Amino acid sequence: MTATATAPVRPVAAPEPIESPLVAKPRRPWWVVGLNAVPNLVVFSILGGVMYVGHHTEWKLPKMSALMGTATAPVDDWCAEHLVPESSCIECRTELLPKLKPKGFCREHGVAECVIHHPELAQVKGEPQLPKYNTAQAIALVARPENNSRNTMHTSRVQFSSAESVTKAGVDVDVVQERPMLDVITANGELMFDPTRVGHLSTRVPGSVAAVFKTVGDEVAAGDILALVDASQVGQAKSQFLQAVVQHQLRKTTVERLRPIATNGALPQKALIEAESALQEAEVGLIATRQSLANLGFDLPEGLEDRASRALADELRFLGVPKNALALLPAGTKTANLIPVRATYDGVLVASQVVAGEVVDTSKTLFTVSDPRRMWLILNVRQEDARHVHRGQTVKFHSDNGDQDVAGQVSWISPAFDEQTRTMQVRVVIANEDGALQDKTFGAGRIVLREEPNAIVVPRDAVQSTPDASFVFVRDKNYFDEGSPKFFHVRQVRLGARDGQYIELLAGVLPGEVIASKGSNVLLAQLLRSNLGAGCGCHEH
């Protein structure tokens, strides 16, 4: 009987009971159902509240200052155009501070609402002070920037919410004042030695330099010997003069001896005539040789022709050379060929281009002597300014290095313009007695057209300009009164003279008025913004 192996039988898990849909679930308690519904009720309540608030606030979030309780003014009371509370905006609510009746454009001074003709417009408490000079005449002196008579920016006022806001905006104020000012024409120029008082000295004949007695910077007087030159032509001229003197003396003696004899008839008249003719030729030769020495700069004393030949030779050997100069000469250079190089006038030796032993000729400049007590200032005036320049006008010169300020008067005006630069040269004579000025100094010259001791001026940063007009901002005279609005009047002004710090106003303001200086560009920006009507939040607009 065969045994059969069988696999072990695993037990089969009983199937899970299938829940029948017909079988009813056990009901949850009512309080569990109510507890589960609470979160949904809370969410729907919040959404409903948000919708209610958004509907009544036109869906605009309040500012943080309102949420924190720090808002200073209601949103509805703010003029976004003029940046002040609308309830106190004098531009939107003109009844708060009515504007004066317009005075119109002043043709004489070129500004609107001219305070010179209408001083009641001046923002000063008390009697306004009018200009102490004829501003209309000053306006007509030169071409000045003009204002467009159709510009209406002066009809506006720039208001601030408080005095503190003016300070926070970076606006400083200054007072219109009086101070000396110059109306000038500016031109570049060069300060130089007077060319008529500058000497470029050289030797009269070729030779070699025997000695040099002066150096650069030395003061010299007219006639001072600067150097000695050893020139053979000088020795030849002296020899010719000596021969002419001797020959003249000989022929003169001959004539004097023959004249008594010829008078007694012991000598033919022909011989006397020939002797006298020879004497005249000797005199002509003597004159010619004397002139040759004079041409070399030697001054021959009178009566030299009557001296004995030996004495005359000694006199001629060192002619024109003083003994103190001879004492400085080195051994072997004391010859009869020496010729001095002399200063032609008082001055200073500004250049020396020679040393002892150097061979020189007439084309080489040995010394330059200048008289620094008088200088020339040459200005290059622009063509458009030339018509305002006249002889006798005062000129003030300031060097580029900043350490020289001098003054003089116009002495010469060129009749022609430079073809390339289109400028006209003007010469000014400058006194330099102390010698403090240097040659070839560049700088700027100011030709004074008008000098006003009581000019009405403001700081330069107080003036603001548009393409067709210039303005300043004048603080209202009641600015510090309690309850008074804080604002600035807009004034057209006419510009005049200026310097590095101030600018003259020939019309538009009066002394004593207070104007915005530093930060006045802030007022101009607000003025332009208001005129464009940007961002106006006023209910009336």
State the strand order across the main sheet: 5-14-17-16-15-18
Distance separating the two termini: 122 Å
The helix content, as a percent range, equals 10-25%
Poorly predicted sequence stretches spanning 5 or more consecutive residues: 1-15, 17-24, 64-74, 534-541
- The average pLDDT score comes to 84
- Determine Rg (CA atoms, Å): 53 Å
Output the number of helix runs: 9
Query: Biggest sheet, open or closed, and with what strands and sense?
Result: 6 strands, antiparallel, barrel
Number of domains: 4
Shape designation: elongated
Quantity of strands, as a count: 24
Beta-strand content estimate? 25-35%
Structural category is alpha+beta
Q: Can you put this structure into words, describing what you see?
A:
With 541 residues, this protein is an alpha+beta fold. The protein folds into four domains: 28-61; 105-179 and 453-532, Beta Barrel (conserved putative lor/sdh protein from methanococcus maripaludis s2 fold); 185-192 and 371-451, Efflux pump adaptor protein, beta barrel domain (Elongation Factor Tu (Ef-tu), domain 3), CATH 2.40.30.170; 197-370, no CATH class. Helices cover 23% and strands 28% of the residues. The protein has a six-stranded antiparallel barrel. Helix 5 (232-263) runs antiparallel to helix 6 (269-295) and helix 5 (232-263) runs antiparallel to helix 7 (309-317). The chain is elongated and about 185 Å long. Mean pLDDT is 84; it is low at 1-15, 17-24, 64-74 and 534-541.
